[in-house]
Give the backbone structure.
Amino acid sequence: MTLDTTPAGSDADEVRQLYERYYAAESNAKRLEIALEMGKLDGRRHAEIYAVLENE
């Protein structure tokens, strides 16, 4: 069973970019903003997984 429903690497690239931005951020406010983006991405990924599982 495969759960990857997106083009190869797109989520991985986005996660990598978010982590790079997070660690390069110079303020806690900017880190919080990036962390919220990470949460949205995680929510999207979980929604995709649940959608695939419901259709099995």
In short: The first helix runs from residue 10 to 24. The chain has a mean pLDDT of 86. The chain has two helices and no strands.
